[in-house]
Design a protein that fits this description.
Layout: E1 15-16, E2 29-33, E3 39-43, H1 55-68, E4 77-79, H2 82-85, E5 99-101, H3 102-112, H4 115-126, H5 129-143, H6 165-178, E6 190-193, E7 196-199, E8 211-219, E9 223-232, E10 235-244, H7 247-262, H8 288-292, E11 325-328, H9 340-344, E12 371-373, E13 382-386
Parallel strand pairs: 1-3, 6-11
Antiparallel strand pairs: 2-3, 2-10, 4-5, 6-7, 8-9, 9-10, 11-13, 12-13
Helix pairs in contact: 1-4, 1-6, 3-4, 4-5
Length: about 375
Amino acid sequence: MRHRHFLKLFSAGTIALSVLAGPALANPVVVFDLGSGKILQHQDAFKRWYPASLSKLMTAYVTFRALAAGEVQLDSPIKVTKHSAAEPPSKMGFKPGSVMRLDNALKMMLVKSANDIAMAVGENVGGSQAAFAERMNAEATRLGMNGTHFVNPNGLYSPDQYTTARDLAVLVMAIRREFPQYAPWFSIEGLAVGKKAIPNYNLLIGRYPGADGMKTGFVCPSGFNMIGSATRNGRTLVAVVLGEKSAVTRAETAAKLLDQGFDMPAAGSATVATLAPYGDTVSPNDMHDEVCKKKRPQEQSEAPPVVAKDVPKSPYQEKLDHVPTLIAVGLGGATGPAPKAILDQGAEEYADVPIPSWRPDRPAPAGTGPKIAGSAAQGDQQAKVAN
């Protein structure tokens, strides 16, 4: 497996990155041990930041709690509304009225980072975008995410949607500890939708030893955000990285921080729960001009860029060194009960509908798509893809 060997750090306890040898990072980061909650490294952990698609982790968490409460089932129908279908990319591009299973919707949201599907999940599970945002904020308050506020389930830019690196660490701990049964969804290498293969935007998956999650995010004001996790010898570490300059550098930074973390003992006093606020906790950071003003439109995207052959490549720009395992998802198969929020509104319960043709937002050029073996079945069935 391709893997860059980064500078190793030998130290103990909690370390503020500003005191590390070499140039200090300019963006918020938190590295912590998932098992103990101990913080290994941090910088600007309470700095207000735009979460972008990292918001979808809270959307997943609220939905997981709704599943646990019996409000919805994994095979419940998620219907695409006109509002959700109109959300900008990254998106699946399904027509209004399309229906899919909830579990498939969540996988599309987490792997493809589909904004239209995240909005559809929020509208169906919560009853409306506003009602679902209220639930997101209620969970944030309950978890102690005091520097966080949501207005939408997909993370599209709003000045009123913000978080901190420390708060995201709190959310990750809640997801991984309360709902371990869904952990495999955060390490899916890609999706198969018909004959289309959709790779995971998390460039650590399949490339960094032990990588098992979790999510990426990007809007121009936030820069390139990432939460990367990896497990080695039974120890799971998580790196929260906000405000990087590209999809590749966020993966490189997360990998470097994880490397450093695995070389450090778990000793230390501060935990994700007990770390005291410090620094500027009010002023948001807007990276729009720095990240997007001079970038080409194709680089202003959640998807990793395609680089020229003569440009030196990071290990995280290379293709996987193995045939990736794709999870087959699609429309239809929603035979379960409608979400409680929809039934409470007096709407008619809808189940399976005829499956329309898939309309991706960016069709692959003819002849360039991977070959997929296997059918696009519902649920957790796998298909293999050959590059």
